[in-house]
Design a protein that fits this description.
By secondary structure, the protein is α/β, with parallel strands linked by helices. Helix content is 44%, strand content 14%.
């Protein structure tokens, strides 16, 4: 099939699936094996001469994993992709690929909690890597944070908890000017709605556990970028540290990619409807969702994204912890859970884990309150979700 100009939904259904090799199976088989055998000394010897393109051991390469990597790389406009055992495994590999002991990283105050801890604490303790955390909304902050030891800018657009955007093209241009690399977490938008590599980023990372998986039944991560970087990460950070994606997880992602465009369209429609309801609700203090025309980064979002996903945050006008908990516990459709991006709607208070994962100073710098609620708007009927939120807000305020 000639696929150079296929639209995303068609490409995701067919690209890189050589059905003639699989007896015409409409669903590619799952290669659930740890190793591959060879007919002779010469054959396995030749395979080791071309390890990135040969199948020897599934910690290095596997046909099911490789198929998914090719599909998502095509969607993202990347030369190559590399699946990992988790989103944090992918983030860690991407950072370690560019960093050495004593280097310095510039990143954002509101990045994902474990990534925040990795940069601020773990890399500092283990490799004496320094870091500076900026708001991400002021280009001057990035410029002023650059030191002679700076090697990398790590972005997340939108950011966790506050959902503020960075001007990706402007930040990557600044990085190139100073000889720095850029890595961005693009999990929220997916490669369907935002293409950071085209905006100048060196590497793009994802938690496939979220929208790329979409069914809350897998844990995986992904790094996308230029072939030279991806091949180097494959034989160093992934192979040596062992954070490889299992064939079964990859096969589940393959299943999910076939409905990605449909799911993301519905997530965005539902989230915008829920966000607009919350924004107008008298018992809600604020709503943070880049898809709202009132959002501070709406113009930037319209410029660098082609759609919006289903994750947002809001703060109810509930002044006591008892009322906040009452609201939280009164919801019936929204389930309480830490992740997001699945078919089901979830609610979580980020402060619960951030207070345990981060130091008091790091938590304070994030600028979020105990009342802040993060909701992952799923694929249910939006009117039912709105009714659930409205009822819980009323019960929490009135004590009914």
């Amino acid at each position: 099939m000639k696929d150079e100009h296929l639209n995303p939904e068609t490409m995701l259904a067919h690209y890189a699936e050589e059905r003639g090799d699989y007896h015409g199976a409409v669903v590619p088989p799952l290669f659930q094996n740890s190793l591959f055998t060879f007919e002779s000394w010469q054959a396995i010897d030749a395979a080791f001469d071309n390890r990135r393109e040969s199948y020897i051991y599934s910690r290095v390469a596997n046909p099911t994993v490789a198929l998914v990597e090719k599909k998502i790389a095509r969607l993202a406009g990347a030369e190559k992709g590399l699946l990992f055992a988790s989103g944090m495994s992918a983030i860690s590999a991407a950072l370690l690929h560019f960093l050495n002991a004593g280097d310095h990283v510039i990143t954002l105050k509101n990045i994902y909690g474990p990534a925040n801890n990795l940069i601020a604490v773990y890399l500092k303790e283990k490799m004496n890597i320094g870091s500076t955390f900026v708001s991400g909304t002021d280009m001057g902050e990035f410029e002023r944070a650059i030191t002679p030891k700076t090697r990398l800018i790590y972005l997340e657009s939108p950011t966790s908890a506050t959902f503020r955007l960075q001007d990706i093209a402007a930040v990557t241009a600044l990085a190139r000017k100073h000889g720095l690399k850029t890595v961005i977490d693009n999990t929220w938008a997916t490669p369907l709605f935002q293409k950071p590599l085209a905006l100048g980023a060196d590497l793009e990372v994802h938690s496939c556990s979220k929208y790329l998986g979409g069914h809350s039944d897998l844990v995986s991560g992904l790094v996308l970028g230029a072939a030279a970087d991806i091949d180097a990460i494959a034989v160093r950070e992934r192979e040596l540290l062992g954070g490889v994606c299992s064939p079964f997880e990859a096969w589940l992602i393959l299943r999910s990619l076939r409905t990605l465009t449909l799911r993301m369209e519905k997530h965005g429609q539902n989230a915008l409807k829920v966000a607009a309801f919350l924004e107008a609700h008298p018992r809600v203090r604020r709503v943070d969702y880049p898809g709202l025309p009132s959002a501070p980064d709406y113009a930037l979002a319209a410029r660098q994204m082609s759609g919006f996903s289903g994750l947002l945050a809001f703060e109810p006008r509930l002044e006591s912890l008892d009322k906040i908990r009452a609201f939280f516990n009164s919801l019936q459709i929204f389930q309480i859970g830490v992740s997001w991006g699945g078919h089901e709607s979830l609610i979580y208070a980020p402060a619960i884990s951030y207070l345990k994962e981060l130091s008091p100073a790091r938590f304070k710098a994030m600028g979020i309150s105990l009342a802040r609620m993060r909701i992952s708007v799923g694929l249910e009927n939006a009117d039912d979700l709105i009714a659930d939120l409205d009822r819980a807000l009323t019960l929490a305020e009135t004590g009914g």
